[in-house]
Amino acid sequence: MSTFPRRPRVLLLTGGPLDGADGAGVRLASDVLGVLTDVEFTWFTRWPHRRGRPPPHPYGGHAVPMPSRDGGPRTPERVQSVLGGAVYARRCDLVHAFLTIGRAFPAFSWLRPLLLGARPVVHTLPGVTEPALLPRTRPLGTTVALSESMARRLRAADFGDVRVIPPMLPLEHWPSRPRPRGLPVVLYAGRHDPAGGAETAIDAAAEAVRAGAEFRLVLAMRGRPGQDLHSREEALRERAGAAGLRDVEVRGYVPDMPELIASAHVLLFPPTAIGGRSDIPLIVLEALATGRPVILSDLPQFADFGNAVLRAPAGDARRTGQQLLWLLDQPRSWDVLAERGRTAVEERFGPERFAARYAALYRELLA
């Protein structure tokens, strides 16, 4: 039975096509599209389609073709999103935007009444590239933060109506897996960003090895448009070698992330700043759901995980390495953290809770 008096029409406004390059905003929009099946959505789909790959969710609604060379959220895609949003917003009851606050966002926010009209707007905020942009930005409507930490920052910047709805993880795709046997694998998964934490992960691993730990370090790295990935991967290998690490693998894009996480014993994710990435990184949720303990940097956004994770001061490779050494040497503590992590994802990041909160917000704004 529908949770709405009638089937509402909602525009999903993203910086690129939903079936294009993966990113926090696209992932969140795709999740909303997947769980709210009694809403008639309009979304952007890549054109021409990749061979054999249909639009992300065949739940009806309207898929608007967006010409795109590779599906990435580059300037042409963002311009098409703004112009297409201005057209289709007027055909919908509500606009749901999934846009990071970057350098061009303040100008867009001031033009919001002209571009999106009088329709109510929900803005799910994946991240903020620079905190200095917040005072120059007007809220698009009701803002949804992924963490309590981000919600406090937005309220302090006079964003008005700010809600907190954490992201979801489809638990059926991420079953809890037993601890792998053999030589432990320590995994870092992230992007080639200056504050992304890959260098800290290498230095922390070296600290643990010098203290007697034995494991293999795997760095699963994703690039951004315009980056020379080969030279960046080589730089990480050189840093690992200079730090005395011998068993290190640097990988690029991983098509089967569930298997990679299942093969690991620990996820090491120590960024010194979040930047424009999601406040609640999906890689952390995926590792916790799989039953893999996680060591994070002690950033405010990560406080929402509570005692389900270990945290070390941001940029403190020595302390991070000590925690890694302790965790690998304490099987019972490993088991406790693995169970806590899975429970935390089930209780706070499940699809049912995610769907109920967004459905309630839609009903409130459409009333």
UniProtKB/TrEMBL annotation:
Listed CDD domains: GT4_PimA-like (cd03801)
Keyword Signal: no
GO terms of molecular function: glycosyltransferase activity
Presence of keyword Transcription: no
Keywords: Glycosyltransferase, Transferase
Matches recorded under SUPFAM superfamilies: UDP-Glycosyltransferase/glycogen phosphorylase
A Pfam family hit: Glyco_trans_1_4
Chain spans, region Disordered: 52-76
Protein name per Swiss-Prot or TrEMBL: D-inositol 3-phosphate glycosyltransferase
